[in-house]
Specification:
Chain lengths: 146, 170
C-alpha cells in the first residue's frame, strides 16, 4: 500500500511523454528506453493521430514524440494540428529520413526537435532533455545540412 | 560491439540458451527486441551491433546461435550482410527484419534457403511467433536457414502471416 503510494508520488514528479509511432516495436523500444530514466515516463502511446487531443489532455502530456510517417496522416501535419491547439507543448519529430527538407518542414510545423531513429539511445534521451529545457534539438548531421 | 548487460554473467544457465546477436541500427528497436527475445527462456540476447561491419566482426570472434538483422542496416545493405553471413557462418540461422518500403527490396535479395513471414501490425507479437518458430526449427536441428519478417505498418490485410519456401538443411 505504502509502496504503491510512493510509486504514485514519484510518477507525479516525472515528465510525461506521449509516443506516436505506427510501429508497435518502435513504441515498445522507446518506452523501455525512456522509462529507465528516473525523471521521465511514457504516459501514453498511439499508433496514429486519432484521439491525440484526448490523449494529451487525459494523460497530462508534457512532451510528444511523433513519428514523421504515420498511417492515417503524416507526422508533420499531426504536429501542426497539435501545435495549433497546444502551442506550448514541445514536439520531437522522429524520422528515418536524412533529407534536410523533412526537418525544415518539421520546424515550420512547430516541432522543437528533429531526430533520426538511428541515433544512439543516449542521444534520444539528450534530445528529450534539450527539448524540455526549451533549447530544441536537431541531430548534428542534420544541423550541418540545414 | 556491445555485450548485453546481464547475459554474460549468467554462467551455465546462459550457456544452455540459444545465443542471439541483434544487428539493428535503431536503438529503440534493439531494446524492444532484447526485451521480447529474453522473455523466451530458451533464448538470450548476448550481443548487439548497430551496423553490418560490426555484426560480421562479432561473428568472427564470438559464438552465436542466431543472428537477427535489420535489412536497412548502416554500413552495408543487409541483403549483402545475409550473404556474407552465409559465407562466413554457413550453418548460422538468420532472422532478417524489414520495415516500411523495403518490401520489394526484401523480395529481391538473393539469399537461398529463405523462409518468409509477412508481418503487418502487431510486430511484437509476430516476432515472438517467429522466434517460437525458429525455436522449433532449432529443436529439430535445422541449421543455415533464413527467416524474413516484414514489419509493414500498412493497415491492409493483417491476416497475411505467410510462410514461404520451407527449405534449409539438417
Amino acid at each position: 500500500m505504502k509502496e504503491k503510494k510512493e510509486k504514485k508520488d514519484q510518477e507525479k514528479t516525472k515528465t510525461r511523454i506521449l509516443v506516436v509511432d505506427d510501429h508497435d516495436i518502435v513504441r515498445k523500444g522507446l518506452t523501455l528506453l525512456i522509462n529507465q530514466e528516473p525523471d521521465l515516463m511514457v504516459c501514453a502511446e498511439a499508433e496514429n493521430g486519432e484521439n491525440i487531443f484526448e490523449l494529451i489532455e487525459n494523460h497530462k502530456v508534457d512532451l510528444a514524440i511523433i513519428d514523421i510517417s504515420l498511417n492515417d496522416t503524416d507526422g508533420i501535419e499531426l504536429t501542426q494540428k497539435v501545435k495549433s491547439r497546444y502551442p506550448h507543448l514541445p514536439v520531437l519529430i522522429l524520422t528515418m529520413h536524412n533529407e534536410a527538407i523533412y526537418s525544415e518542414k518539421a520546424f515550420e510545423a512547430g516541432a522543437g526537435g528533429y531526430i533520426k531513429k538511428q541515433e544512439a539511445a543516449e542521444t534520444i534521451i539528450t534530445a528529450i532533455r534539450l527539448m524540455l529545457s526549451s533549447r530544441g534539438y536537431t541531430s548534428v548531421r542534420m544541423a550541418e545540412k540545414l | 560491439m556491445k555485450v548485453v548487460s546481464g547475459t554474460e554473467q549468467q554462467g551455465n544457465s546462459s550457456e544452455k540458451k540459444t545465443r542471439v546477436l541483434i544487428a539493428d541500427g535503431h536503438p529503440a528497436v534493439r531494446r524492444a527486441l532484447i526485451s521480447l527475445i529474453n522473455q523466451n527462456t530458451d533464448f538470450a540476447v548476448c550481443l548487439e551491433a548497430d551496423n553490418a561491419l560490426e555484426a560480421l566482426e562479432i561473428l568472427k570472434k564470438q559464438h552465436v546461435d542466431l543472428a537477427i538483422a535489420d535489412i536497412s542496416l548502416r554500413g552495408e545493405d543487409t541483403g549483402a550482410l545475409a550473404e556474407k553471413i552465409k559465407l562466413q557462418c554457413p550453418s548460422l540461422p538468420v532472422l532478417i527484419l524489414s520495415m516500411e518500403d523495403e518490401v520489394l527490396y526484401a523480395e529481391s535479395f538473393s539469399v537461398t534457403d529463405q523462409r518468409e513471414y509477412v508481418v503487418k501490425k502487431n510486430a511484437t507479437q509476430k516476432i515472438t511467433k517467429a522466434i517460437q518458430y525458429i525455436q522449433t526449427l532449432l529443436n529439430n536441428h535445422f541449421l543455415g536457414f533464413t527467416v524474413l519478417v516484414r514489419i509493414d505498418s500498412s493497415t491492409a490485410n493483417d491476416s497475411s502471416f505467410m510462410q514461404k519456401e520451407l527449405s534449409g538443411y539438417r
